[in-house]
Design brief:
single chain, about 350 residues, alpha+beta, 8-stranded antiparallel sheet, two-stranded antiparallel sheet, 12 strands, globular
Length: about 350
Amino acid sequence: MENPVLVEVTRGELVESIHRGAFALVDGDGTLVASAGDLDRPVFPRSAVKLLQAIPLVETGAAARFGLSDKDLSLACASHSGEPEHVRRAASMLEKAGLDKTALECGSHWPSEAEVSRDMARRGETPCQLHNNCSGKHAGFLLTAAHRGEEMAGYVGPNHPVQVRAKAVIEDLIGRSLNVDVCGTDGCSIPTYAAPLRDFASAFAKIASGRGIEPQRAEAARALMDACMAEPFEMSGTGRACLKLMQAAPGKVFVKTGAEGVYCGALPEPRPRLRAQNRRWRASGGRGAGRCASRQGDGRGRAGAGRDLCRHGERRSDQLARRAHRCAAGETSGTLRLSAPKVPADAV
């Protein structure tokens, strides 16, 4: 099944390129209310499911023991930009367990925030593990291991208790086993597992609604989601699509990017005026995946939130779903826009 065109890039009056993708919108009862594309093809969600991987940090009591704040919990779910605040917070989290950056097995890379990287280069600095966009997640892994009295070394391995717990949570929420045939290695060295698009949609619907999930797990997941919505900078960074969308409707929208064009999101607040509550969307982009998925996520977020978004939030998400391209001199040369039909208001 070929995925439909969901995003168009124009130059002048003509469409210059197209991007295919898929999305699923699932309500709190697990009903698929809107979709496009192939929902059954296994996809690697990558960083889009960091919240799911962080659930044991709260469930085991590690977050409470080490006194983690909302900013800490948000960073534990982050693909951050490596900005100074992100780096300091990741180091602070490790210090709570008497650890430092050398305990991190995620590797290092330059910050994605270009100005931060340039400033470091001017000072003759090189990045360390704390600059890795996954350092907060890995700090959470280590705090959980420390709380449980487990060996720290090798915590990224698939058989380490940290990864076994994370996998078990994902399996529970998507409702299927994840075997070696759908396992790959993520960019930060941990296992990543592929599953059908609709399964990840259902997982976030469970978290958003609290239905079809054990009470303790629901409470842990909601604590993480609330932390990310309260402190979206920690889980993203300056100018990032996740940050912009959550700022457009504070406390009403959760969204998380993943590599290769994957976005996961949820609308967790009750909406008494709507026929069905607690929608969750997931967008998976194909070619040109990064910019494709961010436009899909912005558009699905606006459609999924429906009338419950404040007027300001609705205007902001419309702006995010359609972006002008400019040439080097600053003149508008085209647009990046959604081409798929909007989700009808009565579907949400």
